[in-house]
Amino acid sequence: MAEASAGFVRPGAKSLLGEGVFLMTVDQGPDMDRYQGVTAIEGETLALCAEQYFAQSEQTPTRVRLAVGQSDVGEGLKWRAGGVLIQNIAEDDARGPTEEAWTRTQALFETIGEDELIDSLLSSNHLLFRLFHEDGVRVFGSQPLRAFCRCSQDRIETVLKSFPPEDREGMIEADGKIHVTCEYCSHVYAVEPATLDQAA
Ligand SMILES: [Zn+2]
After folding, report:
1. What's the CA-to-centroid distance between 63 and ligand 1, angstroms?
2. What CATH number was assigned to the domain covering residues 153-197?
3. 82 alpha carbon – ligand 1 mean position (Å)
4. Rounded to whole angstroms, what are the CA distances from 118 to 19, 63, 72, 112, 130?
5. How many other CB atoms are there within 10 angstroms of residue 86's CB atom?
6. Domain ranges, ordered by start, for the chain
7. How remote is the CA of residue 163 from the centroid of ligand 1, in Å?
8. What are 7-35's pLDDT values in tens digits?
9. Using CA atoms, how far apart are residues 137 and 7, in angstroms rounded to an integer?
10. Average pLDDT, stretch 77-90?
11. Which of 11, 151, 184, 191 is deepest in the core (most CB within 10 A)?
Protein backbone atom coordinates (compact mmCIF):
# COMPACT_ATOMS: atom_id res chain seq x y z
CA MET A 1 0.00 0.00 0.00
CA ALA A 2 2.97 2.30 -0.53
CA GLU A 3 0.94 4.33 -3.01
CA ALA A 4 -2.06 4.81 -0.75
CA SER A 5 0.10 5.86 2.16
CA ALA A 6 2.39 8.16 0.18
CA GLY A 7 2.70 11.50 1.90
CA PHE A 8 1.00 10.32 5.09
CA VAL A 9 2.91 9.52 8.21
CA ARG A 10 0.03 7.29 9.33
CA PRO A 11 -2.30 6.11 6.59
CA GLY A 12 -5.89 5.78 7.74
CA ALA A 13 -8.03 2.68 8.04
CA LYS A 14 -9.87 3.43 4.81
CA SER A 15 -6.78 3.75 2.65
CA LEU A 16 -5.30 0.57 4.19
CA LEU A 17 -8.45 -1.56 4.28
CA GLY A 18 -10.29 -0.30 1.21
CA GLU A 19 -13.79 -1.57 0.64
CA GLY A 20 -14.10 -3.99 3.52
CA VAL A 21 -16.50 -3.98 6.44
CA PHE A 22 -15.75 -3.66 10.13
CA LEU A 23 -16.72 -6.82 12.02
CA MET A 24 -17.04 -6.75 15.78
CA THR A 25 -17.27 -9.97 17.78
CA VAL A 26 -18.51 -9.41 21.31
CA ASP A 27 -17.80 -12.24 23.74
CA GLN A 28 -19.32 -11.60 27.14
CA GLY A 29 -18.17 -14.83 28.73
CA PRO A 30 -19.22 -18.48 28.93
CA ASP A 31 -22.81 -17.80 30.07
CA MET A 32 -23.66 -15.46 27.21
CA ASP A 33 -23.96 -16.04 23.48
CA ARG A 34 -21.27 -14.49 21.34
CA TYR A 35 -22.61 -12.12 18.77
CA GLN A 36 -21.23 -10.28 15.83
CA GLY A 37 -22.01 -6.88 14.37
CA VAL A 38 -21.06 -5.42 11.02
CA THR A 39 -20.60 -1.76 10.18
CA ALA A 40 -18.94 0.13 7.35
CA ILE A 41 -15.32 1.19 7.73
CA GLU A 42 -15.90 4.77 8.84
CA GLY A 43 -13.19 6.77 10.47
CA GLU A 44 -9.50 7.00 9.93
CA THR A 45 -8.51 4.53 12.63
CA LEU A 46 -9.72 1.11 13.76
CA ALA A 47 -10.53 2.70 17.12
CA LEU A 48 -12.88 5.17 15.40
CA CYS A 49 -14.47 2.30 13.45
CA ALA A 50 -15.14 0.56 16.76
CA GLU A 51 -16.64 3.73 18.27
CA GLN A 52 -18.84 4.00 15.21
CA TYR A 53 -19.98 0.41 15.70
CA PHE A 54 -21.03 1.05 19.30
CA ALA A 55 -22.78 4.31 18.38
CA GLN A 56 -24.77 2.70 15.56
CA SER A 57 -25.39 -0.84 16.70
CA GLU A 58 -25.54 -0.59 20.48
CA GLN A 59 -26.41 3.05 21.02
CA THR A 60 -23.94 3.02 23.88
CA PRO A 61 -21.57 5.99 24.09
CA THR A 62 -18.17 4.31 23.81
CA ARG A 63 -14.61 5.49 23.39
CA VAL A 64 -11.80 3.26 22.13
CA ARG A 65 -8.06 3.80 21.98
CA LEU A 66 -5.69 1.34 20.33
CA ALA A 67 -1.94 1.40 19.91
CA VAL A 68 0.63 -0.81 18.23
CA GLY A 69 4.34 -0.30 18.39
CA GLN A 70 7.72 -1.68 19.22
CA SER A 71 9.19 -1.44 22.65
CA ASP A 72 12.41 -2.66 24.16
CA VAL A 73 12.50 -3.94 27.71
CA GLY A 74 15.97 -5.41 27.51
CA GLU A 75 15.18 -8.29 25.12
CA GLY A 76 15.43 -6.33 21.89
CA LEU A 77 12.58 -4.64 20.08
CA LYS A 78 9.28 -6.50 20.39
CA TRP A 79 5.93 -5.64 18.83
CA ARG A 80 3.19 -4.93 21.33
CA ALA A 81 -0.44 -3.97 21.01
CA GLY A 82 -2.66 -2.45 23.65
CA GLY A 83 -6.07 -0.91 23.90
CA VAL A 84 -8.59 0.60 26.26
CA LEU A 85 -12.34 1.00 25.98
CA ILE A 86 -14.72 3.05 28.13
CA GLN A 87 -18.50 3.05 28.04
CA ASN A 88 -21.11 5.31 29.55
CA ILE A 89 -23.54 3.28 31.63
CA ALA A 90 -27.07 4.60 31.24
CA GLU A 91 -28.33 6.55 34.21
CA ASP A 92 -31.11 5.18 36.40
CA ASP A 93 -32.79 6.01 39.69
CA ALA A 94 -30.18 4.27 41.81
CA ARG A 95 -27.19 5.57 39.93
CA GLY A 96 -28.41 9.06 39.21
CA PRO A 97 -27.19 11.14 36.29
CA THR A 98 -23.97 9.88 34.66
CA GLU A 99 -23.37 12.71 32.21
CA GLU A 100 -20.88 14.64 34.28
CA ALA A 101 -18.92 11.50 35.17
CA TRP A 102 -18.85 10.53 31.49
CA THR A 103 -17.47 13.93 30.49
CA ARG A 104 -14.78 13.76 33.19
CA THR A 105 -13.91 10.15 32.31
CA GLN A 106 -13.46 11.03 28.64
CA ALA A 107 -11.20 13.96 29.54
CA LEU A 108 -8.95 11.62 31.56
CA PHE A 109 -9.15 9.01 28.82
CA GLU A 110 -7.84 11.55 26.29
CA THR A 111 -4.68 11.94 28.34
CA ILE A 112 -3.61 8.31 27.77
CA GLY A 113 -0.48 8.26 25.64
CA GLU A 114 0.04 5.60 22.99
CA ASP A 115 3.34 4.79 24.67
CA GLU A 116 1.40 4.00 27.85
CA LEU A 117 -0.81 1.49 26.02
CA ILE A 118 2.16 -0.55 24.83
CA ASP A 119 4.45 -0.02 27.80
CA SER A 120 5.25 -3.52 29.08
CA LEU A 121 6.39 -2.05 32.39
CA LEU A 122 3.07 -0.32 33.00
CA SER A 123 0.36 -2.79 33.99
CA SER A 124 -3.26 -2.07 33.09
CA ASN A 125 -4.03 -1.86 36.81
CA HIS A 126 -1.43 0.86 37.26
CA LEU A 127 -2.72 2.74 34.25
CA LEU A 128 -6.30 2.55 35.59
CA PHE A 129 -5.18 3.76 38.99
CA ARG A 130 -3.13 6.54 37.46
CA LEU A 131 -6.18 7.80 35.57
CA PHE A 132 -9.10 7.18 37.87
CA HIS A 133 -7.80 6.91 41.43
CA GLU A 134 -9.94 9.88 42.51
CA ASP A 135 -13.11 8.03 41.55
CA GLY A 136 -12.01 4.73 43.04
CA VAL A 137 -10.93 1.81 40.89
CA ARG A 138 -12.37 -1.70 41.09
CA VAL A 139 -10.66 -4.40 39.03
CA PHE A 140 -12.32 -7.66 38.01
CA GLY A 141 -10.44 -10.86 37.25
CA SER A 142 -8.71 -10.99 33.89
CA GLN A 143 -9.25 -13.54 31.16
CA PRO A 144 -6.44 -14.82 28.94
CA LEU A 145 -6.83 -14.10 25.22
CA ARG A 146 -5.84 -16.50 22.49
CA ALA A 147 -6.31 -16.61 18.77
CA PHE A 148 -9.02 -19.12 17.97
CA CYS A 149 -11.25 -19.91 15.03
CA ARG A 150 -14.18 -22.33 14.92
CA CYS A 151 -13.41 -23.45 11.40
CA SER A 152 -12.40 -27.06 10.72
CA GLN A 153 -12.00 -29.50 7.85
CA ASP A 154 -15.37 -31.02 8.83
CA ARG A 155 -17.17 -27.68 8.74
CA ILE A 156 -15.66 -26.74 5.41
CA GLU A 157 -16.68 -30.11 3.95
CA THR A 158 -20.22 -29.68 5.31
CA VAL A 159 -20.46 -26.28 3.59
CA LEU A 160 -19.15 -27.71 0.33
CA LYS A 161 -21.63 -30.61 0.50
CA SER A 162 -24.46 -28.06 0.56
CA PHE A 163 -23.55 -27.02 -3.00
CA PRO A 164 -24.99 -28.97 -5.96
CA PRO A 165 -22.40 -31.38 -7.49
CA GLU A 166 -22.23 -29.35 -10.72
CA ASP A 167 -21.24 -26.23 -8.74
CA ARG A 168 -18.58 -28.17 -6.87
CA GLU A 169 -17.25 -29.42 -10.18
CA GLY A 170 -16.44 -25.83 -11.13
CA MET A 171 -14.51 -25.27 -7.89
CA ILE A 172 -11.92 -27.99 -8.57
CA GLU A 173 -8.53 -26.46 -9.23
CA ALA A 174 -5.52 -27.62 -11.24
CA ASP A 175 -4.28 -29.92 -8.47
CA GLY A 176 -7.61 -31.76 -8.46
CA LYS A 177 -8.69 -30.36 -5.11
CA ILE A 178 -11.10 -27.67 -3.92
CA HIS A 179 -9.43 -24.95 -1.88
CA VAL A 180 -11.36 -22.95 0.66
CA THR A 181 -9.98 -20.01 2.62
CA CYS A 182 -11.60 -19.27 5.98
CA GLU A 183 -12.37 -15.55 5.88
CA TYR A 184 -11.95 -15.23 9.64
CA CYS A 185 -8.52 -16.74 10.20
CA SER A 186 -7.18 -17.09 6.61
CA HIS A 187 -6.51 -20.82 7.06
CA VAL A 188 -6.60 -22.53 3.66
CA TYR A 189 -8.29 -25.93 3.46
CA ALA A 190 -7.75 -28.40 0.65
CA VAL A 191 -10.59 -30.84 0.06
CA GLU A 192 -10.56 -33.97 -2.09
CA PRO A 193 -13.74 -33.76 -4.20
CA ALA A 194 -14.30 -37.51 -3.77
CA THR A 195 -14.82 -37.13 0.00
CA LEU A 196 -17.78 -34.84 -0.72
CA ASP A 197 -19.59 -37.48 -2.78
CA GLN A 198 -19.87 -39.79 0.19
CA ALA A 199 -23.15 -39.67 2.06
CA ALA A 200 -23.34 -36.67 4.38
ZN1 LIG B 1 -10.97 -20.07 10.45
Report:
1. 29
2. 3.90.1280.10
3. 24
4. 29, 18, 10, 11, 15
5. 16
6. 2-132, 153-197
7. 20
8. 545 677 777 777 788 888 888 777 888 88
9. 42
10. 90
11. 191
